[in-house]
Amino acid sequence: AVVSRGAKVWRWVHVMEGARIGSDSSIGQGCFVGRGALIGDRVKIQNNVSVYDGVELRNDVFVGPSAVFTNVSRPRAAVRLGRDKYQRTVVEEHATIGANSTIVCGTVLGHHCFVGAGAVVTRNVPPHALVHGNPARIRGFVDDANNPLTIPPESVLRAFGIEDFKAENTAYEDCKQTQNSDDPRFLYCVETETLYRRCVETGTLTVQSSSP
User: Fold this and answer.
1) Nearest to 138 by CA among 212, 211, 90, 191
2) How many CA atoms lie within 13 A of 49 on its CB side?
3) 3-class SS at 138?
4) Closest CA relative to residue 92, chosen from 124, 69, 119, 67
5) Which of 92-101, 144-153, 155-164 is predicted least confidently?
């Protein structure tokens, strides 16, 4: 294993051969770091977290206590899989994962996203998205300092497009109760995870297809 300069590994931590821990990271008590797990610089992992083979935590990621990662989507005790069958999970820079969250393998958690405590993440999380629940759903967006936003940052729209915010048959009456953007042209519906362009004159909503 490689444990870089300044990293702190607390007691009762098991680090397997082949794991990599970046500089100035902190691995809390009772953690497990699997063979092939990649942990970046300044990552903070709280107590009782298992980072299995195939999991990559990039720089400045925070993982709350007892969060769970996986690397096989359909495990069976009687079926032995080689390492080449493990599914990769990537947590991008500055992401936060709350206590007791479960991150299903094969997903990408975008930079600066925030996963609420106890969430079950079963699909990719866009950058800056705030998700919680079982299964986790987008409930809003946060900036670099975790302050709430009402619409996705332009960088999110450019990177992902509107296809990640699924459009459903949602009437204006349903949407107007959700968070309103400071920009009167846009409205984000939390329940359907849809960003709408709003006509100021008529109040008509259309699904937004390009960045503001």
Assistant:
1) 191
2) 28
3) strand
4) 124
5) 155-164
Distance between CA 4 and CA 41 in Å, rounded? Answer: 9
> Residue holding tokens 């699924």?
166
Cα separation, 63 vs 58, in Å, equals 11
What contacts 24+ positions apart, CB below 8 Å, involve 121-130?
Answer: 124/164, 125/95, 126/152, 126/156, 126/159, 126/160, 126/164, 127/92, 127/153, 127/155, 127/156, 127/159, 127/160, 128/152, 128/153, 128/155, 128/156, 129/156
Task: Tell whether the model's pLDDT for residue 159 goes beyond 60.
Answer: no
Query: Tokens standing for 1?
Result: 């294993």
Is the entire prediction scored with pTM above 0.90? Answer: no
Looking at the DSSP bridge assignments, the partners of residue 87 are none
Q: What is the pLDDT of residues 119-153, one digit of tens each?
A: 999 999 988 888 999 999 888 788 788 877 665 55
Query: Got the DSSP string for 72-125?
Result: -SS--TT----GGGPPPEEE-TT-EE-TT-EE-TT-EE-TT-EEPTT-EE-S-B
Nearest to 174 by CA among 185, 187, 160, 161: 187
